[in-house]
Design a protein that fits this description.
By secondary structure, the protein is an alpha+beta fold. It is 40% helix and 26% strand. An eight-stranded mixed sheet has the order 3-2-1-4-6-5-7-8.
């Protein structure tokens, strides 16, 4: 098991991302090139504020992810997350014990979270909210994640709060429910209208290019 949450985010995740990009390079078939190009064109930084351990920045560019102690010049802050080290360690332990990261498809799925298309859709947006994950295994405490989109500081006072059960997250991961169904299961407090509209846009499939005329 990873010793600290910081080590997981700064060492394990970048390596996992790299494996995912290499897996995407080897894929073929409909949409494979477009998916890879979308990841390769992604550029930006994510700030992780880990209570009890400090912070780290994950920087994505040209299909690579690296960890930095501060924000490098020339990068747009895409998102910021805040959570406690205790909560992070618990989530990491569940993830590592489950063996999900050993799934051959897991790295590619993770790499695709870097998306130039999503960055374009989110440009100019500022959305701040909290996510509360309840009903965790073994009676673990609820996990609270503070999220800022288009800002560099996790919010103390969110625009809204979204509560979801651990089982719903598992159902999504297993493919038993769709992202749209997850949105329907969220318990929302506050004004989430703009975030829901943006979320629906992100879930729309990208427009297909018309075939070249002969």
């Amino acid at each position: 098991m990873t010793d600290t949450a910081t080590a997981f985010f700064s060492e394990v995740l970048p390596a996992h991302f790299g494996k995912g990009v290499e897996a995407l390079r080897k894929k073929d078939g409909p949409g494979a090139k477009e998916a890879l190009d979308d990841v390769l064109a992604s550029k930006g930084a994510i700030r992780l504020v880990i209570g009890g351990e400090g912070e780290t920045w994950l920087v994505v560019e040209n299909g690579t992810m690296r960890s930095e102690k501060t924000l490098p010049d020339g990068y747009v802050v895409r998102m910021a997350f805040g959570f406690t080290a205790e909560a992070a360690k618990g989530a990491i332990a569940l993830l590592e014990e489950s063996g999900r990261m050993d799934d051959p498809e897991a790295p590619a799925r993770f790499a695709r979270t870097a998306s130039a298309r999503a960055e374009k859709l989110l440009a100019g947006q500022k959305i701040e909210f909290h996510v509360i994950v309840r009903d965790l295994p073994d009676g673990a405490k609820d996990v609270v994640v503070k999220v800022a989109i288009g800002a560099d500081t996790p919010p103390e006072k969110p625009q809204f709060t979204a509560t979801i059960s651990y089982d719903d997250i598992e159902d999504l991961r297993e493919g038993d429910i769709t992202p749209q169904q997850v949105l329907g299961r969220l318990r929302l407090t506050g004004d989430a209208s703009r975030a829901m509209a943006v979320g629906m846009m992100l879930m729309q499939p990208p427009a297909q290019k018309a075939p070249a005329k002969k």
